[in-house]
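Researcher: Please predict.
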Amino acid sequence: GAGAIDQTTLDPVAASAAAAIDRAEAGAAAPAPSAAAVKRGYIQIGIFSQEANAKRAADQMAAAGMGAAVRSDQSNGKTYWRVIVGPAASVAERDELVARVKGIGYPDAYPVSN
């Protein structure tokens, strides 16, 4: 009749989001939407006093298939460059990244928040 409401199917994105919410509410582990869910989801592979050295380290990580970024910072009037890898989507992935970075030759690598 005229007052009937047409039912339409959810688009795939809405349907998968609804399914993820259902899983979360059921107590099942829904996939993390982003690395924000992982505390310290990045791995700092080193701090460098020379930007060129930081870039070389980042290139090594990229060559090994890991997303790397060089971030400059300052301390006591000196500029330094941090090289980080990530973000990891899970704690397990983060731990695997740490192991891979150490295997490439950065034994002091450790998880950081950003």
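Model: The helical segments are 12-25, 51-63, 91-104.
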